[in-house]
Design a protein that fits this description.
Strand order of the largest sheet: 1-2-5-6-7
Distance between the termini: 55 Å
Number of strands: 10
Order of helices and strands: HEHHHEHEHEEHEHEHEHEHHHHEHH
Radius of gyration: 20 Å
Helix content: 40-55%
Bound molecules: zinc ion
Structural class: alpha/beta
Shape: globular
Largest sheet: 5 strands, parallel
């Protein structure tokens, strides 16, 4: 790095630590759940310092991350058993509360922007929570039930249509958007002050939410469809315009599949070819004999990861289409496996993104909007609308 670039990087590090950074989506609870996390002594170190995964306290501090939304993720398979979905949500929430209770010198709750600002000023990392999949909302009362437990947004569904709405990944078109119950859920969320998360839903569901929600919404971990044409999990320019009109925010997902169609195509083809070669050889990826096959595929597909510049391209795109007031960060750390881009491999690396934005002449005020102020505006507005009823 040249001297001037080095200085700009140091400024980025300083800015990352000075400004609040909120991230719409970190999948730590589910990673711990898969690891059979228990609140025992042997596991308590995991959220503090670890070599696996993308999030822990030490790295978050390094990266200047202050308020990552912990995803209370309910897989679509639970949609066939709503009481089990609710029980899983309770377990994951309990786990996050347990992490906070075990480390009161490091972590705190994050129930509102004011609460987060207060705790962050004391040097703590807040762990607000979002429910990813509305499956646990068996009845409308469950919205206030989960609100009382600290859930502040609900992603209406996940990879499949559920009892609330249709999913972007599902081709069934069960409802053609929201279900009759889904319309009631939207009304109730507005009333309680629960933020609506429009990531994962189908386009039709999205436009119905835009039409019926009285409050602005978040897309907590989506990117721009402009870079991945035809892929409904990301948002089209037309949707970005509707989102701006709603005064909402899209929080950019860092997963390489969300960032670049050429890379996502190469990733899919390489996976397919690897699986074919492994099954022909009667091997699994874990076998030591599989190593040369994996190496060969890696050589054939050298370009399987996007980069931090591409994430900045998505931020540029939202700014150009919808405006600087409508973009934020929603990494999907701990949720997108090994697909993270160069320069953004874990929560210690937000300064690299800020560095890139500074190079592109984003002002400090722009960067503060991206890091938290836009999301705070939505959150406060959702509260205000709930309070006025
Ligand atoms: Zn997700």
């Amino acid at each position: 790095m040249e001297q001037s670039d080095q200085n700009l990087y140091l400024y980025a590090v300083e800015l990352a630590r000075r400004t609040i950074i909120t991230d719409g989506h970190v999948d730590l609870p589910y990673r711990l759940q898969v690891k059979n996390f228990r609140l025992d002594r042997e596991y308590l170190g995991i959220p503090i310092q670890t070599n696996d995964g993308d999030f822990d306290y030490e790295r978050a501090k390094q990266g200047g991350l202050d308020a990552p939304f912990m995803s209370i993720f309910i897989p679509s398979s639970y949609q066939n058993d709503l009481p089990a979905a609710k029980a899983l949500a309770d377990t994951l929430i309990h786990m996050v509360q347990g992490i906070i209770a075990a480390h009161p010198d490091k972590f705190a709750k994050g129930d509102s922007p004011e609460m987060i600002e207060e705790y962050v000023s004391q040097g703590l990392i807040c762990l607000p929570m979002g429910l990813e999949n509305g499956a646990p909302l068996i009845s409308l009362e469950d919205i206030s039930y989960f609100y009382a437990k600290g859930i502040r947004y609900v992603t209406l569904t996940h990879g499949k249509d559920n009892h609330i709405c249709d999913s972007s990944y599902d081709t069934t078109v069960t409802w053609g958007g929201l279900s009759p119950y889904g319309f009631e859920v939207i009304r109730e969320m507005n009333k309680i002050g629960m933020i609506i998360d429009v990531s994962h839903i189908s386009d039709k569901t999205f436009y119905q939410v835009m039409e019926h929600s009285k409050a602005p919404v978040l897309a907590t971990h989506s990117s721009c469809r402009f870079f991945t044409p035809g892929w409904e999990r990301n948002m089209s320019d037309e949707m970005l315009l509707a989102l701006a009109k709603n005064d909402g925010v899209i929080q950019i997902n860092f997963g390489s599949d969300f960032l670049d169609v050429e890379i996502s195509t190469a990733r899919r083809e390489s996976r397919k070819e690897l699986n074919e070669k492994l099954s022909q050889a009667g091997l699994t990826a874990e076998d030591s004999l599989a190593k040369p096959i994996i190496e060969e595929i890696k050589r054939k597909y050298p370009n399987l990861h996007s980069d931090v510049q591409r994430v900045a391209d998505h931020i540029d795109h939202v700014r150009d289409v919808a405006g600087i007031d409508h973009v934020g960060l929603g990494s999907d750390f701990d949720g997108v496996g090994d697909s993270l881009p160069a320069g953004l491999k874990d929560v210690s690396m937000y300064p690299n993104l800020i560095h890139e934005l500074l190079k592109r002449d984003y002002t400090e005020e722009d960067i503060e909007k991206i890091c938290y102020k836009n999301v705070w505006r939505v959150w406060n507005k959702v509260n205000e609308i709930a309070g006025s009823r």
